[in-house]
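User:
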Amino acid sequence: MGYTAVVDYGVGNLKSVTNAMNYLGLRTCITSEAKELECADAIILPGVGAFPDAAEKLRATGLEQTLMAQAERKPILGICLGMQMLFDRGEEVRECKGLGLVSGCVRKIKTNLKLPHIGWNSLRYPNPSPLFAGVEEGSYVYFVHSFCGVATDQSTVIGATDYGTPVVAAVQKGNVYGCQFHPEKSGEVGLQILKNFGGLNR
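Assistant: Predicted structure:
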């Protein structure tokens, strides 16, 4: 039986992600080993905190090149800060290089509303994606963030929400997927999204 590798680089809430996957009957492996990423059916890149700290910690593991190589072969899902890490660069605290798997940058949300954006918000789908199969447009998911991805190519934006301004909620480029929201904290809707991801390469 295959498994989904959950990347441990010191900045993610690994337990809630693995608990949700295990609840769905999807086997997971928390790891910081390149070999286990290479052998996995799929990879989840979680993350909480600031972009530069996460980027430095990920590079310190030596997994950056492994993730970029595996993105050519299998589904990868970035969650919250993990999604932001998929972009070319981030502008939080200081400009910092990301993985470059999705074209664009990560900037502070330009809104008159209070930041961070915390709580439930609805999804709309600018472009179709198997990640949202069986999830109705308008479904609510849980967000916690002050920065968001700004995609260079709008065809990569598969989910959006509004917080006084349009905000990118999800992206896809080839095998690479990202959710700015937390599917593992988004009830039945989030479980369906994780189930969809878990079925992509099985």
